[in-house]
Amino acid sequence: MSVSVLAVLALPLSACGGEDESASPAAATTASQAPKAALTITDPWVKTVDEGMTAAFGTITNPSGADMTIVSAATPASSEVELHEVVGAGAETKMRAKQGGLVVPAGGELELKPGGYHIMLMGVTEPIEPGQKVAFTLTLADKSTVEFSALAKEFNGGNESYAPGH
After folding, report:
1. Where exactly are the structural domains of the chain?
2. Which among 59, 55, 67 is positioned nearest to 40, based on CA atoms?
3. Each residue's pLDDT tens digit, 95-141
4. Which terminus, N or C, of the chain has the lesser number of Cβ atoms within 10 Å?
5. Model confidence pTM above 0.70
């Protein structure tokens, strides 16, 4: 056989190989099944305390195309942790557990701040001192988790009263 005949016979074989590679719905499926981008926490901090209650703050960013809901938080620094909101104004300002969790909008951010949304630590039994790093784990509605550490800082504000059971 001549070289040109071999080349013509090899053409259908290479076309078959090309079909297998181009028939890649599995590759498209793999890309669409990639895990969602995780939330990121910028400038996380926690108010120092000797015992009792304190709170954690920072800015949570959601780079994904879908809202993400934080349903719970945990830290070894406290036996009980709640996601909180502050409601009311002036002397009527109260903090309470945020029913349904905290929603971080798609492509947006949620600010945790004194007088607003925050992570409430209730049951702190050992001092949280300035400069200490406090570990946190956030659990999302889809059961995934996000871990971060918050820097302990002295802060004199945020003395709202607590309205449990709301």
Report:
1. 3-32, 40-156
2. 59
3. 999 999 999 999 999 999 999 999 999 999 899 999 999 999 999 99
4. N
5. yes
